[in-house]
From TrEMBL:
Cofactor list: Zn(2+)
Reactions catalysed: N(6)-propanoyl-L-lysyl-[protein] + NAD(+) + H2O = 3''-O-propanoyl-ADP-D-ribose + nicotinamide + L-lysyl-[protein]; N(6)-glutaryl-L-lysyl-[protein] + NAD(+) + H2O = 2''-O-glutaryl-ADP-D-ribose + nicotinamide + L-lysyl-[protein]; N(6)-decanoyl-L-lysyl-[protein] + NAD(+) + H2O = 2''-O-decanoyl-ADP-D-ribose + nicotinamide + L-lysyl-[protein]; N(6)-succinyl-L-lysyl-[protein] + NAD(+) + H2O = 2''-O-succinyl-ADP-D-ribose + nicotinamide + L-lysyl-[protein]
Annotated positions binding Zn(2+): 207, 210, 237, 240
Keyword Metal-binding: yes
MF terms (GO), sorted A to Z: histone H3K18 deacetylase activity, NAD-dependent; metal ion binding; NAD+ binding
Domain Deacetylase sirtuin-type intervals: 90-335
Listed name of the protein: protein acetyllysine N-acetyltransferase
Organism: Ramazzottius varieornatus (Water bear)
Length: 402
């Protein structure tokens, strides 16, 4: 072997030895890290002599890991506490409802934000409540409660929906911004000009080709064939023959239509509002719409779980929406009407299908795992987040103010 080959061989050997040493060092490092994590997670009283020797020898590493463990533990406990439902005891609940009733009575411009919590009494599952889709997924349970109703169109407006209608009729309530797609505010008879359904309405399909947009209300869920970024419903505009689209805004999407979002009116009312009541919303999405929040309005939050606006609220009421509104109505001396299916507003505004037009009845898998339509699409988005969703959400956080 000539000199050149020998030196090449030794250089290769040297590189190999160095690589091996680096691997061993890395492995040793991760072994120490694993051990430090394990000891940090133990209660100090439960640490063995061996553990204490380890801590003594690897003081800096251990301190860092212990700090990290404590922070994670604190975050875990905080999240758990935030998810927990709290119910105010009767006496406190009632005095809070009296304060809210007084605020409504003396308000100049009272508006309401509603979330899924006002429809759970109508058996429509929510996402973040204790039996919500999100929560059940985290607990490794089927996404939907097998006992829950699978046909959302059978849900009817709750006491809260009817109470809000009455407050509007009496002139107290000026406007509702709702995150719910279940259409129950419209079905209760709440006037559409004073309502923003910012995530869409499951009973509404729209022709964006007509100017102004042509609206088609239907007495069925129009979203059974639609999905993320594909909103064609398979039915066509009676005027211009273009395919109709649903109005649902899924996770990661932007609103595509003026109606039923009515953002312009919603934001106009938010600017004038002196009293804002948030009912049954986690406010995790709504908090990101800056136009809805003013420093000088009085905010009242009704929710059983923590919300990110609790600290800013004048009053946080830990109660179910129906129960809170029943008490508020008692203090105001008002009675809400009972919803009559024969007076369902949808029946009056819906456009009948023409010959050859069809729709699918909602159906679900026997296990009740995935539901079609807007609600099922929302569940799917939770299970399989699309890569671009987080990016879209960031861009989408703040609505465009025209
Ligand atoms: Zn059209």
């Amino acid at each position: 072997m000539d000199e050149e080959s020998k030196s090449e061989l030794s250089a290769r050997e040297k590189r190999k030895t160095e690589q091996l040493a680096a691997i061993l060092k890395r492995e040793e490092g991760s072994k120490l890290l694993r051990k430090a994590k394990k000891i940090a997670a133990k209660h100090p009283d439960k640490r063995s002599t061996k553990d204490l020797i380890f801590i003594h020898r690897n003081e800096r590493l251990f301190d860092r890991e212990e700090r990290c463990f404590r922070e994670q533990e604190a975050a875990r406990q905080r999240d758990e506490a935030r998810r927990r439902e709290t119910h105010d005891i009767d006496e406190i609940l009632d005095s809070k409802c009296q304060v809210l009733a007084e605020a409504i009575k003396t308000s100049k411009h009272f508006i309401v934000y509603t979330g899924a919590g006002i429809s759970t009494a109508a058996n429509i599952p929510d996402y973040r409540g204790p039996n919500g889709v999100w929560t059940r997924m985290e607990q490794g349970q089927p996404y939907l409660d097998p006992n829950a109703s699978f046909d959302i169109t059978t849900a009817q407006p709750t006491f809260t929906h009817m109470a809000l209608l009455k407050l509007h009729e009496k002139g107290y309530l000026k406007y509702i911004v709702s995150q719910n797609c279940d259409g129950l505010h419209v079905r209760s008879g709440f006037p559409r000009e004073d309502l923003s359904e910012i995530h869409g309405n499951m009973y509404m399909e729209i022709c964006g080709n007509c100017d102004p947009e042509a609206e088609y209300f239907r007495p069925f869920d129009v979203t059974t064939k639609t999905r993320f970024r594909r909103h064609g419903t398979g039915r066509f505009c009676h005027r211009c023959q273009h395919e109709l689209k649903d109005t649902i805004v899924l996770f990661g999407e932007k609103s595509r239509t003026e109606s039923p979002m009515n953002w312009r009116s919603g934001l106009d009312h938010a600017v004038c509002a002196d009293v804002v009541l948030s009912l049954g919303s986690s406010l995790k999405i709504l908090k990101d719409y800056p136009g809805l929040w003013r420093k000088d309005h009085d905010l009242y939050v009704v929710n059983l779980q923590w919300t990110p606006k609790d600290d800013e609220a004048r009053l946080k009421i830990n109660g179910k929406c129906d129960e809170v509104l029943r008490r508020v109505f008692a203090h105001l001396g008002l009675t809400a009407d009972v919803f009559q299916p024969t007076e369902d507003r949808l029946l009056r505004i819906c456009i009948p299908l023409r010959d050859g037009e069809t729709f699918d009845k909602p159906a679900c898998s026997p296990e009740g795992v995935i539901k079609p339509g807007w609600f099922g699409q929302g569940v799917k988005a939770l299970i399989k987040p699309r890569p671009k969703d987080s990016e879209n959400r960031k861009q989408n956080k703040k609505p465009k103010l025209e």
